[in-house]
Amino acid sequence: MRKIALLALCVLTLAGIACKSGDQSGNIQIALITMDSMDEHWIKLNNGAQDKARELKNVTVTWSAPQVGKVDAAAQLQLIEDAITLQVDVLMLAPLHADALVPGIEKAKAAGIKVILVDSGANTEDYDAFLFTDNAAAARLAADELAKVIDGQGKVAIINAQSGAGTTLTRENEFKAQMAEKYPGISIVGTQYSDGDATRALNIATDFMTANPDLAGIYACNEGSTTGAGNGIEQAGKAGTVRFVGFDWSDNTKSLIERGVLDATMVQNPYQMGYQGVQAGVDLLADKTVQRNIDTGVTVATKENAADIK
Description:
- The chain is an alpha/beta fold.
- The protein has ten helices and twelve strands.
- The chain has helices at about 1-10, 40-55, 75-85, 100-110, 135-150, 165-180, 200-210, 225-235, 250-260, 270-285; strands at about 30-35, 60-65, 90-95, 115-120, 130, 155-160, 185-195, 215-220, 245, 265, 295, 300.
- The strands form two sheets. It has a six-stranded parallel sheet with strand order 2-1-3-4-5-11, sandwiched between helices. A six-stranded mixed sheet has the order 7-6-8-9-10-12, with helices on both faces.
- Helix 6 links the parallel strand 6 (about 155-160) and strand 7 (about 185-195).
- Helix 2 runs parallel beside helix 10 (about 270-285), helix 3 (about 75-85) packs parallel to helix 4 and helix 7 (about 200-210) crosses helix 8 (about 225-235).
- The longest helix is centred in the first third of the chain and has 17 residues, at about 40-55.
- It is elongated and about 60 Å long.
């Protein structure tokens, strides 16, 4: 009867995660849960995970994310609950919120599941490995890049993604800290949150430029915010006047650089987060030593090197 009930749960689960107990092949089951499934950043991360799984042959990675995008921490918690119920071997998670996802992370660990955080951290030590961009260093680089193109003078606005995500908060706070320490001639007029939605970021950028006709620059903290803010700058006819530095690499951000709208963007390596994350999970299950914190690197993309960045 227990087996029948468990099989029914496997079939009915909304997360679509393969059930370990019902898998007779001996495959390692990994649940990959990201902030959304639309941004190229997450698509690349999943591509890396799937490529490594295919190389290893005995690994299945099932990818899921909240349907409404980067705002529903409760939906992420439910996806974690589904993964726990289905007794997956490894949870790879990009937490939407540094605090709200802690109960799910700790419950997964207590259930004997290996927990690997990718891209964004959480306020708990109850994880096995964390693959990340050094967001503090990248944000300070972004501040330096924007200060350089505005000659260290003027008003700057920040368009961030989620107000509670550890990653984007670091990108905002370290940018502010670098400006305050190194560039006294630059003032930050405000921060608004787009939840990574390009349309919302476009509107926020427009509002900032309307409220500050002498705005010198904008800094955006993720791909959706960068794409939307860039489109807003271009639509306002202020490309090259309102200087612009962003985050992440996609066809959209590359095009903004090529069109002279985006001066620089901080390029992460989500593919390696996924690729190395799967290997880390497999190694942990084999009781191999795995580095707990793994920096997957960042590159500053500009018009000069854009053609060389994949």
